[in-house]
Amino acid sequence: MGAVRNLGILAHVDAGKTTVIERVLYLTGAVHKRGEVHDGTTVTDFDAQERDRGITIFAAAVSCVWNGHRINLIDTPGHVDFSDEVTRSLRVLDGAVAVFDAVAGVEPQSEAVWREADRHGVPRIAFVNKMDRAGADLDAAAVSIRERLAVVPLVAQLPVGREDGFTGVVNLVRMRALLWSDGRDGYEEVPVPEGLRDEAARRRALLEEAVAELHPAALEEFCSTSALSDGTLAAALRDLTREGAGVVVLCGAAYRNRGIEPLLDAVVAYLPSPVDVPPVRGTLGEAVEERAADPAAPFAALAFKVQATATGRLTFLRVYSGTLDKGDAVLDTGAGRAERVGRILRVQADRHAEAERAVAGDIVAVVGLKAARAGTTLCAPGAPLVLEPPDAAEPVVSVAVEARRSLDTERLAAALARLVEEDPSLVVRSDPETGQTVLSGMGELHLEVAVEKVRRGHGLEVAVGRPRVAYRETVVRGVSGLVYRHVKQDGGAGQFAHVVLDVEPLEVAPGTGGAFEFRSAVTGGRVPQEFVRAVEAGCRDALAEGPLGGHPVTGLRVTLTDGAAHSKDSSELAFRAAGRFGLREALRSAGSALLEPVAEVTVTVPDDALGGVLGDLAARRGRVGGSTARAGTTAVSAVVPMAELFGYATRLRGRTKGRGTFTARPAGYALVPEGVADRLAGAR
């Protein structure tokens, strides 16, 4: 297990992380031909949509061997819409390589995933890619790491050549130059070129000083000798990386095969193995238990991804303790049921190799589990434990989906259910009021990819539309003494009911959308009690459709003040009809208004984008309630109509260059302003 590294590759979209992985797989012998993103031939971007769009959408696991160490890699998406996939991957990783563009430095999604890795306590090293581009600058990238990520960059290499002339690096720890040539695999290790010796010495001194400031043992040696030995420097870099006190910065040009071997060496040297990280903590009732990465300990694993394939359902596991053999029974602690593992697979993106067992520290896929979901704990039946699952992201964007052919409705429901099983950040619900099937996710691209997956994977024609907002109607001006007589005589027993109704607004708590209250003030038994209940039932029937647009009516009180019954022709049916038609007439006579659903929104934005975001909220009829400043960002709280939030995620990212985030939760209903209500009425 000490010879295993479980790490993710993190980056902003188009920083080159998938190309980095392709070069890693090629140089380690895991593949025999280099794949290219632009050709759609990469190993980890194997899904048809990933190849069409040229971006990573789904986290993919691959494995390779370097200098006797097994490296399990997870290629994570770089687009903000798929950040939940990154979060689930970080939950099971021991380390990560953060890839940055040498020209752009720290980009918005790089910053977001870095913060997420901070939250999970995942040690990282940085790889500044694309050093062969015009404008590439390692020093500027290091400054952006320091300023944007609030971490100390420990630059351990010096580039040899600039931009298109970038041919290698100087390893500042060993003070040797590594040079690459086009058309040839591997590098040549040589002494530091004469023209770079002074600069390399200066950079080495800066690195030693930065390390000494952060590492007590290194500081002691530095104070006594004014320098650090190669061994002390390497050991200190390893400690600082694993503690998160600093980040080792390397550089290269993955597309041209330059800088990958030193990156692999750094992964082995600096990032932790499963035995180097603290034991995983789980709960059993109120008790907290730790499980070390020991193959002899009771088995415990966390499922972090579910994938449906043509050959069956794959459940991806990180094994934290114990040993899992093919055919073993495992306990799903969430469902409280035991299941049997049919097969264990070593995963190479979309290819799989059979394995007889998995031990602590492994990342594998298993076949045979029927109920496990992302976040499920699997353990030995005799030693139950619950591991903390990854946090579930709250969806922020929704679309309405329906099958174009009514015959496909059930197939669409099954396809959506499978989609949600694979991606917990998607939510499917049926709106009981609008009748729409609503699909919610992390962004418009996220939903576009999900719908396209249903179309391609299940051969369904799917119509996608904007979800309808569930409006309400309410009474703002009452009416008194409305008389309604229900008389019907068409042979045999007739129907007779006479009611007098008062209708008035009902005072309710702000934002709740109101309610309905019925009471009777009839005296002298003019309307028998059983008929009073029928009048109330009829009034409730009338609330289903209001006079303004056929929306449900709420926020009113109805009082039955008088009435009359016939000894022979009156019945519950007659009084229910009188209540229904009487209240409908009263609502047409009263003053009504439209209510719309609103949401409490918290928007977190960089300070330099605050003005534009506040203006956009005002344009969306948002009412700002307050703001809180937090280290370069501001969190703004506001109440915004639901109808105005469609497309907001995309607009916010555009205004904040991808650095803004928001959460929204329903907050009841509010009156629609008169001008807006007129516009909505015209649209209908």
Q: What labels describe this entry?
A:
eight-stranded antiparallel β-sheet; Alpha-Beta Plaits; about 30% helix; about 675 residues; Rossmann fold; alpha+beta; elongated; 37 strands; 16 helices; Elongation Factor Tu (Ef-tu), domain 3
Give the structure's gist in a few sentences.
With 684 residues, the chain is of the alpha+beta class. The strands form eight sheets. An eight-stranded antiparallel β-sheet has the order 18-17-23-14-15-22-19-20. Strands 2-3-1-4-5-11-6 form a seven-stranded mixed β-sheet, sandwiched between helices.
How would the blueprint of this fold be written?
Elements: E1 4-11, H1 17-27, H2 48-53, E2 60-66, E3 69-75, H3 83-90, E4 95-101, H4 108-120, E5 124-129, H5 138-149, E6 153-155, E7 157-160, E8 168-171, E9 176-180, E10 187-190, H6 197-214, H7 216-225, H8 230-243, E11 247-251, H9 260-270, E12 280-284, E13 287-291, E14 300-309, E15 312-321, E16 323-325, E17 329-332, E18 337-340, E19 343-348, E20 351-355, E21 357-359, E22 363-367, E23 377-379, E24 386-387, E25 397-403, H10 409-422, E26 427-430, E27 437-441, H11 444-458, E28 462-465, E29 472-477, E30 479-488, E31 495-505, E32 516-520, H12 529-542, E33 556-564, H13 572-589, E34 591-606, H14 610-619, E35 623-630, E36 633-641, H15 648-655, E37 661-671, H16 674-683
